[in-house]
Amino acid sequence: MRLDKFVCKSTEYSKDEAIRLIHAGQFRVNGAAVMNEAAQVHENNTITLNGECLQAREFRYLLMHKSLGTICSNVDEGYPSLFNSLQIEKVSELHVAGRLDVDTTGLVLITDDGRWTFDIIRPSNNCQKVYRVGLSRELSEDLIEQFKRGLQLHGESQLARPAVLQILAPKEARLTITEGKFHQVKRMFLAVGYRVVSLHREQIGEIALDVPLGEWRYLTADEVQSFAAVI
Ligand code: URA
Q1: Thinking of the domain 3-53, which architecture would CATH place it in?
Q2: Could you report the per-residue pLDDT of 162-192, keeping only the tens digit for each?
Q3: How far is the CA of 188 from the centre of ligand 1 (A)?
Q4: How far apart are the CA of 40 and the centre of ligand 1, in A?
């Protein structure tokens, strides 16, 4: 990870303060002064501040039940950020691994471990995302086959990956996908002439939503590891 990130993870300094101290030559990596905040360091390196050895804090991994009308960005942009309800330290270091739209509810995974996020969202990982979808009109059975074959989404050169559509009620379905393109689910239904009127994410990989609306919990070590297992 970058030296400035390591400093933020191992001290109470903000990113700006960390960069200022790095430029001032306050940090040594394996005995040598490093004044470039972008220098790559490893947690096994001996990194010292004024002679004192620093230890990076553990990464944090959470799940949250996102409410309608909140956004997954770290700043309020016309709508309140879901991070507002997280009363924990250094919230600004956290990000959502696989964002949901403002009008989508359900499971979001939150972390400060960029590598873990990359493992979840990279398409080659085939991580399954399960959505419950409300539609504006009645679903027809032949959609199951169309989703299975792969849909042509507007603006994409390749077909969407095969997806599993389960019809739950005349205007309600469960959709399992392994991609996470911008507005993926809404665009998939649009490609077959349907408008999504409600969208809720139930599951990502092996992790199912199990907290009430607006609430959150830390993931267990097994849950964190579960994404590595499918790589
Ligand atoms: N697909 C969408 O269209 N929106 C979401 O929020 C998530 C998946």
Answers
A1: Roll (3.10)
A2: 999 999 999 999 999 999 999 999 999 999 9
A3: 10
A4: 34
